[in-house]
Write a structure and sequence with these properties.
6 strands; 9 helices; alpha/beta; six-stranded parallel beta sheet; globular
């Protein structure tokens, strides 16, 4: 029996965030250049996006390129940027009623990449199904720092009272303010860390780590993660008896 047959589609996590790790190691294991792994990983993005949309996921957020990734070899960064342009297939989004968004330090992205991304954002803005967000040139520390700056500016301009600053206020100033916090965070590739990804938002997310490299993370692995999630009791600080 497959994991898809075991899950309860009435209890699908509304927001799934994924750290797509293992592209380079997947390619190296097969004797290929890292860029080949990124290409294979991009194909998995299409598979998982379509499956998530069909299963009833409302928000899918993918850690695509971190601020730290700018420190990788220049040829790999260039290849990744070109891959972004090549793999943004609006047909996939339109066919599955998916709305496309991005979060991160956009100003660091090449102009042609920004133009391609914003074209896709505009063309899918009327879609009413799942929202798929790519975290590009993103880090949680950058996001929290920027939110603090915006709040400080509003206080300085007397548009915000300092006593009004609370958790909701900070969340409202995050780049992710248009989406709920993740219910489930998946990391592929065997590493057991969050790598500066959605640290504020994942305070109460269920974490799922697997050894599968991202290019091999297909439908069955996706539903295995959801099945694992559905076996857990989410208490948010309460006791089981209070739920």
């Amino acid at each position: 029996m497959s994991y898809k047959e075991l899950i309860d589609f009435e209890r699908i996590p509304a927001h799934i965030a994924i750290i797509m790790d293992g592209n380079g190691r997947w390619a190296k294991k097969r004797g290929f250049a890292r860029s080949f792994g990124h290409q294979a990983g991009a194909e998995t993005v299409h598979v998982i996006a379509e499956e998530a949309a069909r299963s009833g996921v409302k928000y899918l957020t993918l850690y695509t390129f971190s601020t730290e990734n700018w420190n990788r070899p220049a040829d790999e960064v260039t290849a990744l940027m070109q891959l972004l342009i090549d793999q943004i297939e609006e047909e996939t989004f339109m066919k599955n009623n998916i709305r496309f968004r991005i979060i991160g330090e956009e100003s660091r992205l090449p102009e042609n990449v920004r133009d391609r991304l914003h074209k896709c954002i505009e063309h899918t803005s009327a879609n009413t199904g799942m929202c798929m967000t790519l975290a590009l040139s993103y880090s949680s520390r950058w996001e929290i720092t920027e939110a603090a700056k915006r709040i400080a500016a509003e206080v300085t301009a007397k548009r915000l009272d300092i006593d009004a600053i609370d958790q909701d206020c900070l969340s409202a100033h995050m780049t992710t303010s248009f989406m709920p916090d993740p219910d489930l965070l998946i990391r592929t590739g065997g590493e057991l860390r969050l790598s500066n990804y959605l640290l504020w938002q994942c305070a109460y997310s269920e974490l799922y780590f697997c050894d599968t490299f991202w290019p091999d993370f297909k439908e069955e692995e996706f539903y295995k993660a959801i099945y694992n999630y559905q076996q857990r009791e989410r208490r948010f600080g309460k006791t089981s008896e209070q739920l």
